[in-house]
User: Fold these one by one.
Assistant:
Number 1:
Amino acid sequence: MTDTEVPLTDNTQYTDIDRSDADEAPSGVLSGQSNVLLDDTQRAAGWHEDSNQEWEEREARNELKHVAGLGELQDVTEVEYRKVRLERVVLVGVWSSAVTTQAKAEESLRELAALAETAGAVVCDGLLQHRSKPDAATYVGSGKAREIADIVAREEADTIVVDDDLAPSQRRALEDAAKVKVVDRTAVILDIFAQHATSREG
């Protein structure tokens, strides 16, 4: 898979992953799909040059983005009370320009990486998707869920950690798509508290 390097605001880098498929047609309120994605058939049907350029720019904004450097955190993640089995995790986040900025979304994912490593996990990769709001079904949309499943398999990860609070139905749907365990930010924080309690009792 060929990656394109894209500079980050903090001088780190992340890459756009190749699209294996696109989300379904827009639903207006984003019942899971980006409202700016078009498929190859639509493009081949005669979109003029300006439309093609607009399509490319819009789709690029909705691709999954790798956030580099998440596995390189040091002092903040070094704790003595790690007693759980180390897990290999992939971090996933969704951000909307109406709510936050890309820089803040990246910083939030780095904070999640620190939490995950504090809980005893090995962070394999971090991915961000820009969309107007999370998908009600799978959080990222069915097409992006399949892309994430491919990344999870490639990294031999056994857990996806989502930088948000998931509904039970979203968690199950993403688990079905990726074939690994899915937890959210709150679950990671609770796990850290539980480890603290166990350490103090011991």
Number 2:
Amino acid sequence: KINSIIDSRTQSMEDALYASGIKGNVAAQIFWLKNRAKDRWSDRTTHEVALELTFANLMKMKKKQGCLDNFLLLSLHHLSKLK
């Protein structure tokens, strides 16, 4: 019984949100679109990058960007020799 009450109240809120959006409430419109059309209305963008993490590639990254510390490089070098 409690679940049906919650479902009914949720439906009422959904209806009110939708009606508010139809009447011009921009916040309701944005909320609806971000939740119902996420593929087109999202604040987040994703980028996929494929990179093989070999010791040689890490050394190239270090030379280009200086983004890896020496301890990490040394650790990866030792791990690569264990294989």
Number 3:
Amino acid sequence: MKKIEGDAVKDLRAIASMLLVNVLIYGKYWAGSVLFTGKDTVTQYMPLINFETDCLQQGSYPLWNPFINFGIPYVEHVLNSALFPTHLLMGLVTGSSMLIYQRDLLLWIFLGGLGIYLCVREFGLTRMTAVVTGISFMFSGQLLVLPSWGIIIYNACCFPYWILGYHRAKRYDTSFSLLSIIFIAIPVFSGYVSSYVQGVYYFIGYVIVDSLLSKRLVRGLLFLAINMSAAFLIALPKLLPVYSSMGNYERMSVAEANANPDEIIGYYNLMSLFLPVKYYFSVYIGQLSMIALLYGMVKKTIRFDALLIMSFLSAWFLIVGSDGTFSILHKIANSILPMMRLTRNEWMYWNYPLTFVILYIARDMDAFLGDEKTTPKMLAVGSFAALLIIMFFSAYNVRLHSRSFLVHLSLAAGFLLVGAAAKVKKIQTVLLMVLIFGEFLMLVDRVSVDEPYVQNGENIHMVLTHQVMASESFRDNELVRQRMPIVVLDDKERPSVSDSRKWPYLLSGLDGNFVDNLNQKRFSGWWYNTQERADFVMLKNTTLPDMDEVPLFAFFGQADGQPVRDAISFDGISCSGFDFRMSADKEGFFLLHQMYDDRWNVYVDGIARPIERANGFFLGVAVPPGSHVLTFRFRDPIFLASCAVSLLTLLSAVLLQARAFIKCGKSGCLPDKSTYQSCEGA
């Protein structure tokens, strides 16, 4: 017991050191003096998360978003992340802001590094190796750039836990893993479908390959069937509404024929493994990782395992030719695998091959740090230095990038000293942490594209960076090509959902004020380009310019279509309904410029009334003369049924895992990490 407690304390210290490195390197981001300036993050994800949390703060779930695209069924929106754990916590407790959301992303980057740490420890390797690989993941080229697209961070940082859960289940000789189930389900709720689809296929491939190599194919397939089925059932409240609506969205049904040659990661970009000088298109995983890989080659310890195979296959799938053509593997997978053709922008998913590579190299890194023989280490470091010199003088602008080159050449010498200090662990540990911290601190400073914002009264002035608009060449120092100024309302001044009653008019949305229109709770027409329904596309292409400052609602005579003398008060609005009080001198027709979906229910004085079509797009309801209360409610039975199934599945999974632990505890079958001891009945 004392040994277990001592190990736990050592692990906590190691994890705390990773968190400290994260906070120190990202210090100005944690403090809020600098914000992530990626265009998609600021203009799309942040306002949507603000909307979701504002709904929850007001006590309503965001089934409907009345402020974008003339109202949209948000329950089926592919970017809806209201049920993602930390977003749900924001909505129920803290509320959201640009800074809170940014800290959420930074927290998940740390959690991703923690997942790598736990995987490496699960493999039976040392804490020092686990710390270095965890830090390498947190500051790898892909993790540095993913904040430009916000929510993809969640997909990237949950993925290590999928692998961790599988290997723990394998060690316990069981086909059930609550850890895998939870972390396979969680990123569904974060909103980015394309990244999730890729992750699922890579994980399936990893488990199958590992099961084949370890001659446990049936157990591996059983693991996938049980855990992925349970995860998908838990994620049904997001999966089922999105799936049922896919035919309504043009962007969800069109596959890319080829990639934009200016927005790719190709073979040229692999040189960033040795010398990273760019923000976008980098696949850097830390210099010690590359030295450790070369050390494994020198020692002839390269292993043909599932991590190596999936590193190769996932990179082969994502790599794009210089002319924008996809690999043959990409074309085959897109033609036969369900949902895979929906993925696009392959440069956004390199976190998957980098995760496999980092975990694969961990064993060689462990050997490099522990081996007391210096000759193989000198050969590995010398090989790295030689490759670095060749690449630098052949493919880089020597004048522009000489400082970066000298830094990495010096780091190579430093890591050789780290390897030579294997006999004196304390000195080795201190020297290693200083080098790793300095390496990634300088890297982040070198490639950062985010500029500080300026506070001006209730507004924040920012300069956004446009996604991947930059030169990929290492012969220049262009980090980003297109910047754009933007003024957004300070989150402290953001009105509530119910405050939108004060200005009940439609805006066309053609002014381009995407952030403010949503944050200010304005009833906007065209909002960005986010997964537009086919019926909305029809409206946008025909009447959108004329739908500017049009009343949100109107009351007309039923027979002649002329306005009726009436008095209408807008009593309430939530993220699933509207409430009105009105009186009229004769029968009329109440038109709401939001209602076009048959999931709306309308009640007049508490009595359900049929919905009728007012024109080619919007719906309304006939109202008799007199004073009435009108209630509009959006209901999605698919979502409600999905929630019930999800909660039941989650509860069952938790109870099954608790039962397994209790049985193992009583029978004393908790396995050592170095063995795969059977735990019958778990």
